[in-house]
Every structure is written in C-alpha cells, then in structure tokens.
Amino acid sequence: MIDTDLQFADGDWMGGGGPACDVVISSRVRLARNIAGYPFVAKASTQQRQEIVALVARCAPKWADGMVWVDLSAAPSLDRTLLVERRLISRNHAKGSKPRGVAFTRDESVSVMVNEEDHLRIQVLQPGLQLHETYERIDRVDDEVESEIDYSFSNRFGYLTACPTNVGTGIRVSVMLHLPALRLRGEIEKVRRAVKDMQLALRGFHGEGTEATGDFYQLSNQTTLGRSEREILGDFVDGVIPSVVEYEHRAREALLAKRRVFLEDQVFRAWGLLTSARLLDADETLQLLSLIRLGSCLGLIESVDPIAVRSLLLLTQPAHLQRIVGKRLDQAGRRIARAELVRERLAGNP
Amino acid sequence: MIDTDLQFADGDWMGGGGPACDVVISSRVRLARNIAGYPFVAKASTQQRQEIVALVARCAPKWADGMVWVDLSAAPSLDRTLLVERRLISRNHAKGSKPRGVAFTRDESVSVMVNEEDHLRIQVLQPGLQLHETYERIDRVDDEVESEIDYSFSNRFGYLTACPTNVGTGIRVSVMLHLPALRLRGEIEKVRRAVKDMQLALRGFHGEGTEATGDFYQLSNQTTLGRSEREILGDFVDGVIPSVVEYEHRAREALLAKRRVFLEDQVFRAWGLLTSARLLDADETLQLLSLIRLGSCLGLIESVDPIAVRSLLLLTQPAHLQRIVGKRLDQAGRRIARAELVRERLAGNP
Fold this sequence. Notes:
alpha+beta; globular
C-alpha cells in the first residue's frame, strides 16, 4: 500500500475550463521571495532552514483563507512525486533531504514552496487564460505573506533572489499551452524560434529541462530585472500569448478545411489505441490524449467526455497511477495498469 | 464504374481452412509446360502466340471439369489486377500486350496461364497444407492437357522450359505461410537463412520480387532439374514445411507463456487501429490483419469473425477495393475506402 495521508480535491490543475481553454490549459504566476536576515537557501545551515520551515508552517493556515502544510523531509517519495505531478512542487524540491516543505490551499490554486531555490516560491495556478486575475490573486497572497515575514529587498534591485534571472520583481509568468495543430502542420519550430527571439522559454509538459510531450508546452517569461510586474504581464499576456493562441486556432481551422480526413484519422487512431492497448507508457499516453483532446475541442469525437480526458492527463502519471491502484508498481506494471485505467475511463464508443 | 464482366466465387485463395491452416494459408503447385513445334514465348511471333491462345481457349472448357477463359489482351487493366490479387495470374502476365490469357475453374483452384514465360503455366491452389493432394490434382490436370497438346519434352532433360531453373519436371511447389510469432520474436532472419541454405526461396505476400508484408511469406522450391516430382515433394513437404510450421507454433507458445500481455497489446492495438482509422494503406492493413489473424488463431480475440479477417486480406487490395466501391479511385481515395470497408466488416467489439 502507498503510505500517504495526502488528500486532494477532485479539481485538478489541468483546469476545468476558463478563457481560451481549448488552447490554454492553465495560467501560472510565481513569485520568488527571500526572508531578510537569512542567507539564501544554498548557503543556509540546517538550523536556519529549519527556522524558515517552522515559520511558514506556523503562518500558512492564515494565508489564502487557509493552507495545509506538508513537511517534505518526512514525506514518502511517492507523495513527493504526487505533488510534482500536481504542479505543487518542482522536481528539484521533491528530491533533496534538508528541511523543506510546501503549503497549499485545498483547491491547490495557491502554493508556497519553502527552501526550494529561494526561501519562498509562491505560486498561483488557475485554469485557462486568466493571467491578470492570477496576478491579482498572487499579489494579495504576497501582501498577506509580507504582513508576517520581512522580505529581502533592495531599493536598487528590488526583491533579492538566489538566481539573478529572478532579481527585481521575482515574478515568473507562464501558461501551459496545447498546440497539437501547429505540430501536425509542422509549424512548432517557427513558434519556438519566435518565442526565443522574444526571450521567452518554451518548455515541455513536465517543466524546466523537459521536452514537449503530447503537444503540451509551457511558455514563460525569462527575465524580471528592471521591469515592473505590469510591464511583464502586459507584453506577455496581452501580446505574445494571444498571438500563439490565434496561431494554433488558424492551424486547427486549416486542418479542418484542407485535411479533415487526415485529422480525423489521427484523432480516431488515438482513440482506437487508447481504448484497445494493453500496455501504455506515459509519453505515448500523453500524446494520444492530446489528439483526443484536439478531436474533442473540434467536435470530431463528440461522445468523448472531456472531463475524463482531462483527468487522465493527470491520473496516468506514475505516482497518481500507483495511488489509484493502491500499490507500488515497477515500470512494466505501470504500463499494464495505465492501459487498464485508460480503457476503463474511456469506456463507451464514440 | 469498373468495366468488368468477371464473376468470382465466394471462396477465395486465402483458404477456408485445411490442414495446419493456423500457419499454412495455402498450398500451390505449378507446372511449366511448352508446346512442341512452337518457339518459347519470348521468341514466338504474334501469329504463333495467337495460335497457342486459340488452342487453349478451345480446349479449356474440357479440362478440370470445365474452365472459363479470359483473353487478357482484351481485359481492362483493373480486371487484370483483380486476377493478380486472386493469384490467378502473375504481375508480369497482367502487364504485356501480346496475345495471352488465362483459363481457370469457377472455384479458382485450377488455372492455366497462356503465354506467360512458358506457353502454359498450370497451377493448382488449395487452402491449408495439402501439397500431396494438390500435386495429385495437378498431375491429373497435366494428363488432361497432354491428351490434347504435345509438350516439348527431352528424354535427357525432361520438360523444356524458357528458364533453365524450371527444366526437368517444370514443377514449382510453394506454400503461403503466416509467421507473425517468429517475426515478433525476431527469429525470421534465422528462418530466412535456413531456407536459403536449403536452396528454397522465401518471398513476400505478393510473390516474386516482393518483400514480406504482414508476416505472410511464400516458401518455394528453387530448382527442378535432375529430381523427380516425388523427390521434390518429399523433401519440401515432409521435411522443411513441417519444421517451419513447428517453429512458428513454438514461437506462438513461447509468446503466450512468457509475453502474453505484450502479445495481447499487439493484437488489440491492431484491432483498435483497424476499427478506428480513417485512412489505411494496403501494407499497414495487411500488417494489422496479420496480428488480428494471430490473435484469432490463439483465441485472444474470440469474437472476431475469422472469415471476415480472411476475406479482408483479399478485399482490401486495390483492384478488389475499387470493384467493391464500384469506381476507380486514386491512392488517397483508396486509403479512405479501405478504412471504411475494414470498419464496416469488423463492426462489433471484441
């Protein structure tokens, strides 16, 4: 049995809608903050880390209408992976051994990683494209945190952070995009070059250092120094993202207009494989679910339940899968269990 | 509309059973014969070819309890391709423009190509592994033909043929084998080397000069000179073929015992793709049907109708497909029509 007490809400980070949700899965804003009087995490002693952990654990229930606290030093590895899969902590934060933790609201929209790269990494994650709202929310959480904790702040540079790319506002803004039509039309490289020219980062489904899988991409700003939060939000949110969304929409329309049978073939083959395979690895599953999601958004497979597809994106990941099955599984066992779960959840024929 | 008067029996060359039919699709014996007093086909004048055609067309109704005659010089190209797909004529015989034809029985088990490489190529094709019976049958047909026609025969060499590899008995014996388990276990190359050492030829689904597709292989003897029909049959039929059949049986048992989930995954993925795809090309279809046939033979997909699978192996080929649809189709159109036909015929879920 999996040794976990963590309980999660039914809702999931993949989002249950929101503006432009056919292309934008979720909106995320993250603030990097450090506590005055303490060295950065990498230089802090175990004792100092422990003090920071204790401070946040004590305050967390008051922030954002109440957050739960998870002590990651004590959490079993499967629980930590579960938190990674739910986007509540980073892969690096799941590793480590020193005092560290995470606080999050029951609905998982707000979280605070403690002793990751910075003392505090505050995150707000919301479904669809709603970065302005997400920013307003995190700004309020930031104020609440600051009412209890003294931030390291320089009048010249702004918020001080462990990594120079975060100095200033300490803000990182990102969206999870679903761009299957651009990939099917061979236009992803064009997008990649364009965002690189704008000093934006296009990352994979699993975040920093990962390749795009299943046509899911995380697009985020890179630098924060010397610009206000509003400037960063303005360029990115009102300029770049709507352009990429529009570009994906046009690609979908072009496929529907000019290559409809090809598109249907791709979508229904994905359906056929997901409802028939006896072995599924995580990457293939993501790729096939991506095509089903596209088909569902375009009305090509009408009887598919979009909620089932969305939840499978989360539940077919290794830790979630093992939690559902209720036991630890090796890779071979996960491939079998994943295929069974997918068949069960997609039961019924389009 | 397709311009054809050809009518075919429901039965098809893929066989409806017969001994060892889980591995041996069909047994074929072919005799190369030439008519005394005429040069070989390549050297014959149009007038001489015409005389040979006229002779066979006149005699055919009396042979093998009655054969129909098709004048290939007059047949539309789609009809000729149809005859190729039904194994009644060779690809080379379908091409050409000079006087030539084919006679065959209504059940298509006996056929005589006229003015292919030799004046006469007599063939008997039967389902499953029954080469002795097939040989007995062709021996009787050979006698019937010889009662009307003087063969070119040398006391020293035997039957004279256009190609030296056929001189002697003029016999070629072949079986169509279905070897999916050997391929899945990576053992096909071993078989290929072994049969090559025995001077046998392993060819593809579509015969001479083609690659194996969908795990279907034609295995045939190569040389005929200096050996009696009985010797050729003995070595091949009682020695080699049972060994290959046994080898495939063991591979199937090993997969079932050691890699059952992998095997089921392969079979059900094939099912998922065949029942979902909107575009199917001929080779992929053959490959997927091969896996379904394996799954059906092993009882993994029980509700699949083996007859539907068997007939699809024939009907998804280009000329048959166009005949069913009732119009000429380009390659793109055939991919759509093939996927529709397959979905329709496999309707129902295992």
